[in-house]
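Deliverable D5.2: sample structural annotation.
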Amino acid sequence: MADGVCKLTGSRGRFVDSHLLPKALTKAGGLGKPLMQGGKGRPPTTRHSSWYDNRLVTRAGEDILAKLDDWAIKELRKAKLVWSGWGPMTRLPDIRQIPATGWGIRELSGVDWRLLRVFMLSLLWRAGATEREEFGDIEIPSDDLNTLRRMVLERTPDPIEFYQTELTQLSTMGFEHNHTPIAMTKTIPGLDGEPEYEVPHFRFYFDGLIVHFDRRPIDEIIHRPLGELVLGYSDTLIVTTVTYQESFQRQNLELIQAEADSWMSNRANTKKSD
């Protein structure tokens, strides 16, 4: 492995393999059972775990990230925020369903949400700092990237409005797969006569959990506070839920599958013509 400067700590040393999304939250449901990967015009492939970078951090930096990962994985599973914490269940029982929709909410406590936000910010930092092409959607200004780096090193979640973080989880079990983070914009309906507004965000997905990082300026976010929907805002966290069948995740996976089928069909036709 090559030597260089750790992008997290700034110290020199030998680079080590570092997973950009924790391996334990992205592996398939059994030894030797791969996950599907594809999209954005790339040929379909399979992976047994998530993406890693061997020029991101040295051992000192990886130890910091690994310690944070280990803690977060245990807490996410204990709170049943990820599929790998469900055991034999295929559906979440503790949600308040919104009538006639696939949506609901969970109200959770008993977790250090501020530290969990630091973990989520570490994922955002990794995605922004890596040069892997699969993470090309996550373009973060250098000043913001350095702020994220310091927040991870110092384990501080403040200011909460900086890349404000919200969680949505799939409330029914679905197809296991890897999904690279993407940049999106969602439209929020206006309340009390106010006009609707758009929220640009980075969307991460792993193990049935969806994470949105708000990309708007802090001043704009403060103008429309979301309270307990925001990770780290208080001791209570409100998580929105959606069934796998109704989710963007399923729709996007079907699109990837269609792209994969098209790629394989074109490849077969090319071989025939040869």
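Annotation notes: The chain is about 30% helix and 25% strand. The helical segments are 59-78, 113-129, 142-154, 218-223, 248-273.
The annotation will be released with the project's public dataset once the embargo ends.
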